[in-house]
Amino acid sequence: MQRLINLNDLNYAATLEYLFGQLPMFQRSGPAAYKNNLDNTLQLDRLYGNPHQKFKTIHVAGTNGKGSVAHMLASVLQSAGFKTGLYTSPHLKDFRERIRINGEMIPESEVVSWVENYRINNDLWKIEPSFFELTVAMAFDYFARQEVDFAVVEVGLGGRLDSTNIITPEVSVITNIGLDHTNLLGETLPEIAGEKAGIIKTNVPVVIGTTQIETSAVFQKVADQKNTRIYFADEEFEVVYSTLGMDGKQNLKVEKNAKSVLPGLKLDLLGIYQHKNIPAVLKAVELLNEKGIHISDESLYGALANVSEKSGLLGRWQVLGNNPLVVCDTGHNEDGIKAVVEQINNTAFKNLHIVFGTVGDKSPDKVLALLPKNAKYYFVRANLPRAMDETELLHRAVEFGLTGDSYTSVAQGVEAAYVNADKNDFVFIGGSTFVVAEILS
């Protein structure tokens, strides 16, 4: 039995200090914080009365695109009239971004009271959860108490052993597979796919966003074992092209089985890489409708045209300013950077300035090899222990023909780029989620 107390005088900043400073946190510490089992998650879930069983869910995994897909699906469900929870990670500006209902972040007072009550009860429970395990428990309990109809739940890392993988969703979605976190998930695409496929549940349809020769058989085998239907969304739906409208949104030309559908569909997320995410969203919505969860075309149109407003998505080809054009993007692994570079190549500018930082527990070489050489670089170190030293990053970059200077902080690098950029130039900020988080904060 949990004990409850009055927490009006407790401090949100002190609560965050506990969450970030005293719990193992992958985003800051790396693999040392990774748990290779669900024991703590299951124990916490039982102690809070199995809250994940009290609402419907959609589960979203993948190497790239899962955050965008999760936000789009949450926007769709919300537009269709469902009270919709959304759990994502990591956050960029505020911890509370991770836990939302109808786009509204969990209140600070709720975070404070929940954490303090957990700490009091844990004097008896004696659980030692990671940061991620505890925040998943917080999210599921909050969603249950607020009586959401649906929760869209994004996997944190992998799938099979991720703390979110206690749910039995209406639909599972796996966006794509790339080489990321290879020290934990495997060194080949099939191995990583096997970990992501861990979210596939018996008789729960699964949508694969991107068909890949190396991984399709892995997903098909698991789906067969689980006796569930599997759909490769990009074999049905395709964004043929898009144009940028005067309203600043993408006008999408969409086909299903080579026939035009959804005329006039708009998307407020600007990255052209979102074209790869849309098929997964459209197929998931189609499957929800087949299950009697009604989502009208009107709801779909309104949702995709206003994803950022409805769900609070940040950091996906986000325009921060003009004259010069300033954009940030959280793409950070090989596939993510490929998509970013493609978008840069489709952008008009006079000179290119790139503020770039990365983490130190993964080799940056494959990413550095992809970056454009016709840019001035500002190599920075984000303010966290995992960040790669900026001078080391500069030395590694020189080997790939990239030129620039190093800066001890993200702010210094961005300031230098602003000083050097003319009004017709382009300043891109990225390389790591943490670099983007700092500039947005």
Can you walk through the features of this model?
Helices cover 38% and strands 18% of the residues. It is α/β, with parallel strands linked by helices and 441 residues long. It has 2 domains: 12-236 and 267-311, UDP-N-acetylmuramoyl-L-alanine:D-glutamate ligase (3-Layer(aba) Sandwich), CATH 3.40.1190; 318-440, Mur ligase, C-terminal domain (Protein-Tyrosine Phosphatase, Chain A), CATH 3.90.190. The strands form 3 sheets. It has an 8-stranded mixed β-sheet, sandwiched between helices. The chain starts with 11 loop residues before the first helix and ends with a helix.
Strand-helix topology:
Blueprint: H1 12-22, H2 26-29, H3 39-47, E1 56-61, H4 66-79, E2 84-87, E3 99-101, E4 104-105, H5 108-125, H6 131-145, E5 150-154, E6 171-174, H7 182-185, H8 189-196, E7 206-208, H9 216-225, E8 230-232, E9 237-244, E10 250-256, E11 259-261, E12 266-267, H10 274-290, H11 297-304, H12 307-311, E13 318-321, E14 325-328, H13 334-345, E15 352-356, H14 365-368, E16 375-380, H15 390-398, E17 403-407, H16 410-420, E18 426-430, H17 433-440
Parallel strand pairs: 1-5, 1-6, 2-5, 6-7, 7-8, 14-18, 15-16, 15-18, 16-17
Antiparallel strand pairs: 2-3, 3-4, 9-10, 10-11, 10-12, 13-14
